[in-house]
Amino acid sequence: MRTRRTARAGQYLALLAYLLFLAFPFLWLLSTAFKPPRELGSLHPTWIPKDPTLANFRQAFDEQPLLDALLNSLVAAVGAAVVAVLIATPMAYVIARRRTLLARAATGWVVVSQAFPFVLVIIPLFLVLKNLRLIDSVPGLIMVYVVWALPFALWMLVGYVRALPPELEEAAAVDGAGRARTLVSVTAPLLAPGIVATALFAFVTAWNEFFFALVLLKSPEKQTLPVVLTHFIGDEGAADLGPLAAAAFLATLPSLVIFAVIQKRITGGMLAGAVKS
Predict the structure, then answer these.
(1) H/E element holding 171?
(2) N or C, which terminus of the chain has less Cβ within 10 Å?
(3) Sign of the CA dihedral running 239, 243, 245, 251
(4) What is the distance between the alpha carbons of residues 44 and 91, in angstroms, rounded to a whole number?
(5) Measuring CA to CA, which residue among 224, 243, 223 is closest to residue 233?
(6) What 8-state DSSP symbol labels residue 237?
(7) Burial of 95 (0-12, 13-18, 19+ CB in 10 A)
(8) What does the pLDDT read at residue 145?
(9) pTM, whole model, 2 decimals?
(10) Per residue in 234-245, pLDDT tens?
């Protein structure tokens, strides 16, 4: 009994240490965002600001178009998440239910495509978008984000579809439902946790993406939030630390809010009672 309690205490301590490790960057960012310049240059920094101020937030909004960048990032991330899920859901259903050579080849290609670095695909993507006249446009950036997020989104949804009992689809077929009707009326509602998790992955990937946005967007009014954050760093590499921390803190809030709102939907058991034994 004592050994079991010691092991459990060790597990809780390890979990607490891991949580602190994950939370440290965000907590330090939050602390820095509210510190005045005098405390930012202190040789003995403290966790809690001695004289908290909102001047860093006001300066960040005065120096850079954060609201426009926030809106551009939101449109690009939401658009990429919605389109990626709409494309990946029927594809995942076909790959999971039809165990053919083509389906296995598609799954293998999904895995291989994740190994491609950004630099390898940026030139072909740039040429394609140039021919489509989508350079320096948010719709063109959404198209790139969809292409980049689709393989992993498809891989995620294939696993969710394979976890669903095929008896539900067989029952729908007996009732006269076709493949499309079964996917919409039976499979899609049961895939809700997987669809939400996949959409969240696509959203966060697009929200945090920097390289494609830097290369494809040239107009200042069309740039996304990660690109605008680099403007707080001077030509000589010196960062305006207070406004940068304030802007970065605001940039992390949407992802945190979305995780807090939908985390129960992701982990909920949607299949409870779906199949009678």
Answers:
(1) helix 166-174
(2) C
(3) negative
(4) 56
(5) 243
(6) S
(7) buried
(8) 92
(9) 0.80
(10) 666 677 788 888
Closest CA to 143 of 92, 75, 223: 75
131-145, 173-187, 240-254, 256-270: which has the minimum mean pLDDT?
256-270
Coil, helix or strand at residue 273: coil
Q: For residue 145, give every residue at least 6 positions away whose Cβ sits within 8 Å of its Cβ, in sequence order, or none.
A: 76, 77, 79, 80, 84, 202, 205, 206, 209, 212
Contacts of 136 (CB under 8 A, 6+ apart): 216, 217, 218, 219, 222
The CA distance from 154 to 106, in Å, is: 10
The Cβ of residue 173 has, within 10 Å, a number of other Cβ atoms equal to 14
Q: Encoding tokens for residue 43?
A: 């040789």
> Which residues, 6 or more positions from 155, have their beta carbon under 8 angstroms from its beta carbon?
107, 110, 111
pLDDT in tens, 180-194: 777 777 777 888 888
Query: Distance (Å, rounded) from C-alpha 139 to C-alpha 143?
Result: 6
Predicted pLDDT of residue 236: 66
Name the DSSP class of 65: -
The residue assigned the tokens 């602190």 is 20
List beta partners, residue 233. Answer: 239
For the record, the structure tokens of 87 come out as 């494309």
Q: What does 14-53 look like in DSSP terms, one character per residue?
A: HHHHHHHHHHHHHHHHHHHHT--HHHHT-SS--SS-SS--
Sign of CA dihedral 50, 53, 57, 59: negative
Mapping DSSP onto H, E and C, the string for 218-232 reads: CCHHHCCHHHHHHHH
